[in-house]
Amino acid sequence: GHGSFAGKMSAAFESLSTRITELGSEIAQMPTGQELHEALGKLEALAVSSQVDIAQCRRDGEATFEQCRRGCEAMIVQQHEEWEQRHQELSQYNGELEEAWRITSGQLEDSINDVVRQVWGDASPTAGGDGGGGR
To answer: Model pTM?
Structure first.
């Protein structure tokens, strides 16, 4: 009985010894407090720097958007001013055309009346005379 007990004890001790060695090895591979502290510091720095990057990115984006918006507004204002100027030029040109047409049509009418007077004499149809067309 004693040999069997001693064998079991020896096997248990050996198993425990192996487990302690394994644990010792695992503990040896674990990072030290200093390493953990440094790693945490790096993580915090990374978090801060990425927040800064994100904030900078947002500011840049907003600045770019604002610049774009101002540029678009300026272009719209400029376009509107050009259209207003074009409109004024066209209105003026239209007025000049109407005036030219008035003068030309007046001259044309005078010329027609002169020809009619030459052809019909004073008995022209436009002069209100009978001219053969009376009803």
So the answer is: 0.39
Nearest 5 degrees, angle CA 115-CA 117-CA 119? 70
CA dist 30 and 18 (Å) reads 19
* Tokens standing for residue 65: 């958007």
Q: Which amino acid is at 37?
A: H
List the structure tokens of 15.
């198993």
- Catalogue the long-range contacts made by 96-103 (C-beta closer than 8 Å, 24 or more residues apart): none
Residues 6+ apart with CB under 8 A from 120: 127, 131
User: Which amino acid, one-letter code, is at 100?
Assistant: A
What is the structure's pLDDT at 128?
53
Tokens for 30, please give them.
């674990």
- Compute CA 47 distance to the chain's CA centroid, rounded to the nearest angstrom: 31
Digit-coded pLDDT (tens) for 57-112: 899 999 999 999 999 999 999 999 999 999 999 999 999 999 999 999 999 999 99
